[in-house]
Known about the structure:
Layout: E1 9-13, H1 15-33, E2 40-46, H2 50-57, E3 65-72, E4 85-88, E5 98-106, H3 110-120, E6 126-134, E7 147-151, E8 157-158, E9 174-177
Parallel strand pairs: 2-3, 2-5, 5-6, 6-7
Antiparallel strand pairs: 1-9, 3-4, 8-9
Amino acid sequence: MPFYDPAKIEILIDADTLARRVAELGARITEDYRQREAGLVLVAVLKGSVMFMADLCRHIDLPIELDFLGLSSYGDSEETSGVVQVTQDLTRPVRGKHVLVVEDIIDTGLTMQYLLENLATRRPASVRVASLLQKPARTQVAVPVDYLGFEIPDRFVIGYGLDYQSKLRNLPFIGVNVGEGPPYPD
Ligand code: 5GP
């Protein structure tokens, strides 16, 4: 038995499909930022975006910086509370730099709306958004997504960084819990 129960997880996006799409986004980002003079810093939102960040940045053929921002709006619940907390701040100023926010999923959009307002006060040269996933059916506030991996249906997804009650972020694919109970052995 692996660390998860395959019978309780339906695979929505497999690892090869993820890898191909992330490579495409990296190539587009490389082209879009190649001529820009100011530096590019990728800002990943912890913790769900770490896989996407790690894979995406290796497909960007430019001298970029990486930084991380801890945000939390969920606790262990599957519903957004709308209240966003900064749990860990950036390590370096982004003033005058191009910022690319790297996010795992845009659900209601509330987290990204907060983040974009927060980043704007730091006077970057520009801010764009790369999100691996978006659930259009759940949108409460429209946020601009410049680089989108996949639109997905309104289902709670896990894996490739996304958690099931803080676990299973290390699944190599994006899946959905099906059947009764958690998708890992008790
Ligand atoms: P929003 O503020 O857009 O409603 O929610 C954004 C955050 O909620 C994401 O960064 C992620 O942490 C969490 N989230 C939203 N949908 C899902 C989901 O389907 N699965 C998991 N694991 N987290 C989600």
